Structure to design on (532 residues):
């Protein structure tokens, strides 16, 4: 008889553990999405969770408290059921977890979680870690109830499980660490495969890096080279080793003539690692500024990191004019962008004169801002170097479409919307505001400020705030950088009546619905992901 009781209690513990594993995993969707945005850095996730107004920990604490109170009430009400009263009380956990999961699903991440294979593997590991943790707790609580023998403790023996929501963040971090035991060597193998694939092909590799303008210039160059060659380019903003490896391994390089690899960096050595995967025959540096200064610490480190691409370039590098001074001692031949002149920018697009090989043409593009002419210019020089004619280059420039979230213009109900959500540097911000001012009607900016500037964050955001003065309405989002932006705005003579602060982008959008009218232009500048 004792054996049957023991087996029954074990089954009870396992079933409860599995249920809690499932509930906790389903409750972690938003947290896992934030972890993905943090590039699977547990340290960054915890820093995000501690941020004021985040409320993640507070909401989990409230869930635990409600579970504890309701479990106590239900279990005591069913105390006449003897040993089953504690199990019946667990219904309260299911109810409140269900409410939490439903409510959490209504709070959408600005950068939605992408259900990659790694993400799904992490979910499975989290389920197992949560289930094992719950099983250990349930087993110990049952053991304690048997040893202590007090009836009230036996009835409420599962009450401490209410602490599990408070453990969810540490459990996610633990699961993330465990997942890296597989992910790190797996990624290394995948990257080595891509490196070998590039090395064994005859494809021409073009590497593009810079503090800003990488993705836009990559798309421009792909369009120009596409007039003569079969072009493969890294998709979207894939600019990490695994992102480049994904582009290589997912395609047969024999079907392409040129591979354009966008190369990003947050630390010294990052570009060198990317160049090791696909050594560039030609390279491009689109510009240098203090972006990612939070991780680089100094501008000198940024210059050194971006310059790593020059050390690996086999034939020739192309440099934006405003950063050429940094690379006077380049180990490879360089050409500075000097082929663009007579720029005219308006709300209808950009016109400029392009000069290549002694021949000039007038180019019109729907892309907005004088800065886009320079992006087109540096891409044009490289395309011309590879044998694309100036007429084809000009035609490609005129066919260019807006790049998603990079001064992308859409019109809705007579209202112009400038989506510059991926803009996160002071130079890009200045260019975006210049574009905004080319439009007629009221001009409105919605922004949280500029991040990852390290010790320059306050100074640069004050400068940025000054650039906002004179607009018809400015809505600052969040609390991360609002104070220095406001100081810069007021210091430049900005009208306090035309400035407001809202906690979230959703709140800002709600405010816009109240005031927008036909003819207005709204600039969404730097739509920060949730981790900020």
């Amino acid at each position: 008889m004792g054996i049957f009781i023991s087996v029954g209690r074990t089954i009870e513990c396992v079933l409860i553990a599995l249920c809690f594993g499932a509930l906790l995993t389903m409750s972690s969707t938003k947290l896992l999405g934030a972890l993905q945005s943090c590039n699977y850095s547990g340290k960054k996730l915890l820093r995000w969770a501690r941020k004021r107004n985040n409320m993640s920990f507070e909401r989990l604490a409230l869930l635990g408290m409600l579970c504890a109170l309701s479990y106590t009430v239900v279990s005591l009400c069913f105390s006449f059921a003897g040993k089953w009263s504690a199990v019946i009380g667990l219904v309260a956990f299911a109810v409140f977890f269900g409410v939490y999961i439903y409510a959490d699903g209504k709070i959408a991440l600005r950068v939605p979680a992408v259900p990659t294979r790694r993400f799904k593997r992490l979910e499975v590991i989290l389920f197992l870690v949560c289930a094992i943790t719950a099983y250990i707790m349930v087993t110990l609580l049952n053991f304690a109830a048997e040893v202590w023998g007090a009836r009230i403790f036996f009835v409420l023996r599962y009450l401490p499980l209410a602490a599990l929501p408070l453990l969810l963040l540490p459990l996610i971090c633990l699961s993330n660490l465990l997942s890296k035991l597989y992910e790190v060597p797996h990624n290394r193998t995948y990257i080595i495969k891509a490196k070998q694939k590039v090395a064994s092909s005859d494809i021409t590799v073009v590497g593009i890096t810079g503090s800003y303008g990488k993705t836009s210039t990559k798309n421009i160059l792909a369009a120009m080279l596409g007039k003569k060659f079969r072009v493969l380019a890294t998709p979207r903003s894939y600019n990490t080793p695994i992102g480049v490896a994904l582009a290589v391994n997912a395609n047969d390089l024999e079907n392409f003539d040129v591979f354009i690899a966008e190369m990003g960096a947050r630390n010294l050595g990052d570009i060198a690692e990317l160049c090791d995967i696909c050594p560039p025959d030609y390279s491009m540096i689109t510009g240098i500024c203090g972006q990612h200064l939070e991780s680089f610490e100094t501008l000198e480190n940024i210059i050194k990191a971006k310059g790593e691409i020059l050390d690996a370039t086999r034939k020739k590098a192309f440099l934006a004019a405003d950063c050429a001074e940094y690379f006077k001692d380049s180990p490879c031949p360089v050409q500075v962008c000097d082929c663009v002149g007579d720029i005219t920018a308006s709300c209808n697009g950009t016109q400029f004169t392009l000069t290549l090989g002694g021949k000039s043409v007038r180019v019109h593009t729907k892309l907005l801002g004088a800065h886009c002419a320079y992006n087109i210019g540096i891409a044009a020089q490289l395309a011309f170097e590879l044998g694309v004619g100036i007429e084809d280059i000009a035609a490609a420039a005129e066919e260019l479409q807006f790049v998603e979230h990079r001064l992308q213009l859409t019109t809705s109900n007579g209202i112009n919307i400038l989506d510059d959500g991926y803009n996160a540097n002071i130079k890009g911000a200045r260019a975006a505001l210049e574009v905004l001012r080319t439009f007629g009607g009221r001009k409105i900016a919605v922004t949280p400020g500029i991040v990852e500037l390290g010790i320059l964050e306050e100074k640069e955001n004050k400068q940025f705030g000054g650039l906002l003065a004179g607009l018809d309405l400015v809505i600052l989002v969040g609390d991360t950088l609002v104070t220095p932006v406001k100081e810069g705005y007021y210091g430049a003579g900005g009208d306090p009546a035309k400035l407001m602060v809202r906690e979230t982008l959703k709140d800002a959008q709600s405010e816009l619905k109240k005031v927008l009218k036909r003819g207005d232009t709204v600039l969404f500048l730097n739509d920060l992901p949730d981790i900020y």
Q: What stands out?
A: The chain has a mean pLDDT of 88. The CA atoms of residues 223 and 396 lie 6 Å apart. Residues 117-148 form the longest helix (32 residues).
